[in-house]
Amino acid sequence: MKILVPVKRVIDYNVKPRVKADGTGVDLANVKMSMNPFDEIAVEEAIRLREKGVATEIIAISVGPEKAQETLRTALAMGADRAILIVAEDVEPLGVAKLLAKVVEEEQPGLVILGKQAIDDDSNQTGQMLAALTGRPQGTFASKVEVAGDTVNVTREVDGGLETVALKTPAIITTDLRLNEPRYASLPNIMKAKSKPLATKTPADYGVDVAPRLKTLTVTEPPVRSAGIKVADVDALVAKLKEMGVAQ
Amino acid sequence: MKTLVYVEHDNASLKDATLAVVTAASQLGEVHLLVAGQGCGAVAEQASKIAGVAKVHVADDAAYANQLAENVATLVVDLMGHHDAFLAPATAHGKNIAPRVAALLDVMQISDILSVESADTFTRPIYAGNAIATVQSADAKKVITVRGTAFAKAEATGGSAAIEAIGSKGDAGTSSFVGAEIAKLERPELTSAKVIVSGGRALKDAETFQQVIFPLADKLGAAVGASRAAVDAGYVPNDYQVGQTGKIVAPEVYVAIGISGAIQHLAGMKDSKTIIAINKDEDAPIFQVADLGLVGDLFKIVPELVGKL
To answer: A-contacting residues of B 207-246, CB under 8 Å?
Structure first.
């Protein structure tokens, strides 16, 4: 089966984001950008499924600025076969899901594997929305994926522990952190990735309206905690705990 | 404005997360609840007693036994014909269902809200809680998930809402429930605990984690949490994880032991009322948010602390 893996170019997870002074957003000028960590896990899972003989072709796709090409090249270097870039900036999860639904219709992948959330907008919506728009079942927050015939068993991380659901393929899966550990792209593979096919499209090619439904009025710094104190020893800590009524 | 709140439950009892969502929903208008499940009469009973609830819709059918998103979403969409907003807790459960509902209604969901500013304007955290966005929705129907720790819990008693049975929309037939492995907890549940004792990578291994962290948690009647590093290293199961990708908590007291305080972790606990940090590195970022800090070797400090409490 074909596997479609959507990836997003986001601020690197090690960078501490800075809110712009005018409250219009987060300052992304000259900030290191990378592939969203959950999407790396998605790419890795797709490659492992190919190594098991389940997947025949892996298509990486991104909706984003021209520079998202770099993110797609990373996916190609990890092992994806070809890539599609839909050039459009600041598209909301609903818009992305609509574009992906069109690509799903065109490519007919057996699985779409997405990250569970992007670490910039922290929405956690696109996979579920894509499942809704394509009428396919969803296996969100996956920590284990097993394909058997036309069924995929997905073990999901839920609040109390784990649960397993069986989905009829074609299906949509979103990855959680513990699904796998993504591989690093080797230098020869990075070189090879440069010659793999990358198609560039626009939302208009798919006839999708991606106008935002949410308007961001302001972006502000979270309230800053007032500086605390350091205590000298355990006795002082115990005294403070008693003062707070936490300990008797 | 009529709001529909998704009740999180296990067919036997209602989960606390729902109560905070009722508070958020009541800031928008008349509150209706939806209980979807199988043999969930007791949950509907409990739901009807929550203060401020006008009506409880109950869909009792085998299709909803495990509240699979495929089946529940079509039920919710049907009810949204006469509701203006759908609210769910921002738990694993709510996050699974709400975006599916939103897409079926062709609206953009608003995730993990911290406050209701007006009927169409909300605040929500972005970038792992490093920024707070105020967003205004242009959609006619609102689909929202609510951060439980950001709203007071509605009173669980005092209400007397009417319970109304609604028909099943049937099983979509594309997914089925295989089984669950729910971790057994002898301690308070993490997201509702008043006190949390949390351990990080410095705890060395699973056994040491148990020996050091659990006695202190027991002394304080606290829930046990962990950093991602501790979970990834296998010290505790992943449902202990506090952080951007784990659970968001806001207890009265959060005790961080051997946790450096990476932004990913802080996103999950920095709204705690009092933060206490024990770490041997006095430059650890955790001390920048801690109200009370103690620099030193946790293997000496924590047992001494347990002894003196």
So the answer is: 219-220, 228, 232, 237-239, 244-245
